[in-house]
From TrEMBL:
Domain of life: Eukaryota
GO molecular function annotations of the record: polysaccharide binding
Recorded topology in the membrane: Single-pass membrane protein
Full protein name: Wall-associated receptor kinase-like 20
Keywords: Signal
Compartments where located: Membrane
UniProt domain Wall-associated receptor kinase galacturonan-binding: residue ranges: 24-80
Gene that encodes it: LOC103712474
Signal peptide feature range: 1-21
Cellular compartments per GO CC: membrane
Cited PANTHER family: WALL-ASSOCIATED RECEPTOR KINASE CARBOXY-TERMINAL PROTEIN-RELATED (PTHR33355), WALL-ASSOCIATED RECEPTOR KINASE GALACTURONAN-BINDING DOMAIN-CONTAINING PROTEIN (PTHR33355:SF14)
Length: 207
């Protein structure tokens, strides 16, 4: 009898472990590969995303929802939408949150395949190593409809790399007020071919 109960307990534990480690149900038409999680009952809750009205979203520390554009589970990467720039004034929608900020204790960080462009910057940025010259790629973006509100402002471009914080793209009033990002950019391509978004990578699941 005791042996039967022990086997039953083990079976229940195995079932619970399987239930907590399975892939989450799709969100809209987007598959949620493990360990990404939209619920405490699936995936790993440390890898938290949100399914909001069938739209998969990543939340910044400031609470801004960023729709997830694509997921590459083999490379541990996903791409999120860049906050919109106001069409009437050169400011990103998350300006008053200071731009994108990711919880440093989370398994997510900003990959080094993002080319970031900052707009409406204070002249102090000219002392930085960023490319703020007339041939900076941000000048191409200013000529698009999306970047038209930032035309003729001081803009700078940089590649997010290991020398910079991988948990933040910073903007602020009195600094730079708007930004966009392109993943794996080809400088020779026109903006119509750019892959706009912010690529995040996640650490393999903690054991």
């Amino acid at each position: 009898m005791a042996a039967t109960l022990s086997l039953l307990a083990l079976a229940i534990l195995a079932t619970l472990a399987g239930a907590s480690s399975r892939d989450c149900p799709p969100c809209g038409g987007t598959e949620i590969p493990y360990p990404l999680s939209t619920s405490s009952n699936c995936g790993d809750p440390d890898y938290k995303l949100y399914c909001n009205n069938n739209s998969l979203e990543f939340l910044s520390v400031g609470g801004t929802p960023h729709p997830v554009l694509s997921i590459n589970p083999e490379a541990y990467r996903l791409i999120i939408h860049v906050p919109a720039i106001d069409m009437n004034v050169c400011s990103s929608s998350d300006l008053f949150e200071g731009g994108l900020k990711i919880d440093e204790s989370s398994p997510f960080n900003i990959s080094n395949r993002n080319t970031v462009m900052l707009f409406d910057c204070n002249e102090t940025i000219l002392f930085s190593p960023l490319n703020c010259s007339s041939n900076s790629l941000c000048r191409k973006f200013e000529e698009t409809e999306e970047g038209s509100a930032c035309r003729d402002t001081l803009c700078c471009t940089y590649l997010k790399d290991s020398r910079m914080t991988s948990h933040r793209i910073r903007i602020r009033v009195g600094g730079c007020t708007a930004y966009t990002s392109v993943v794996d950019i080809d400088p020779n391509d026109p903006p119509s071919l750019w892959n706009f978004g912010i690529e995040l990578q996640w650490l393999p699941r903690r054991t």
